[in-house]
Amino acid sequence: MPSSMIKYPFPILLSRRQHQRLGDMYVKHAISDHFKFTGLYLTFWIQNSSKAYDMVSYLSQINQAMGMRNAAQTLRRWRSFIGPQGQGHNMGFLYWQLNDIWQAPWWASIEYGGRWKMVHYFAKRFFSPVIVVPFISYGNSQLKVFVVNDKLEPVDGAVLSITQYMWTSFTPVATTTINVTLAAAASTDVYSNKMQYEWKQDVCDSVNCFLWFTLTDPHSRSALAPDNFLLLEEPKNLVLPQASIYVMQVSGPTSSTSMPGFKVFDVQLQADNIALFVWLNAHHVSGHFSDNGFLLKDPRTTVQFYTRQNVTAAEIEEALTVNSLKDYSSV
């Protein structure tokens, strides 16, 4: 397909690759439920940008990744509980990973050629043996936190940290720490508090701040679970700052001990603001990152890029682009 056909609104040829006759409309409505994808914003991107297709691709990937994340976390936290409607005692979560075998829009989480879509990076986290699952119980506006431990050994004396951040500052507003004990092969309800008492009221509300969760071993200070975050509003309602994210340096390659045959490059990033759904893309280079689609809450971070291709650090740096949600939600 010529590059001139890869645009949005989708031309007829591209739309006919959609198996569901109204699939493009469903995707548009699903995106607009959560993101600025209607009216002025959509008109601006279609009329004034050659990257409207990139926007649709990016936002639909977030939609898929967050939907799968929320479903997985909910089903996993139900492992040890029965809800008021009889839901629960769920022993796991499966999704159809289905690596792509052709080049086409698809629900697969690994692209043709081996690159990971955003949902695959999220799956790496939500399928960890131990996960922190925060959510809002909207019936009584409570923040609740469960920790799922699929390991066959209990965990004593873990420390759960709940940190408030404003979108406009790398400095935390406040942190709450709780000592927790996790039963083996179980989901444990470890924290509950009314949101009206959770926020530092003179600074935070649901559109200006977010919550960050860590679970650590107090002795070694090592992470027991992947970090997690909780948005208190739909992304389209958040007051996000414009963030400039720079690739400061790409170094390597080194050899991977965990994945023989792969070269590993360190990618150092620097940002001037917190950024949501940061997406790294190494154009025309097949491979994947150690993390992607993440919430960048620190001014500097380093991720790894894994590839089998015979490329140099300079070629990786030249191929890299970095975007975040704010890049596609302002006019």
From TrEMBL:
Pfam families: Ig_mannosidase (PF17753), Mannosidase_ig (PF17786). GO terms for biological process: glycoprotein catabolic process. Residues 263-327 form the Beta-mannosidase Ig-fold domain. Keywords: Glycosidase, Hydrolase. It comes from the Eukaryota. GO terms for molecular function: beta-mannosidase activity. Residues 142-237 form the Mannosidase Ig/CBM-like domain. Belongs to the glycosyl hydrolase 2 family. This is Putative beta-mannosidase. It comes from Rhipicephalus microplus (Cattle tick).
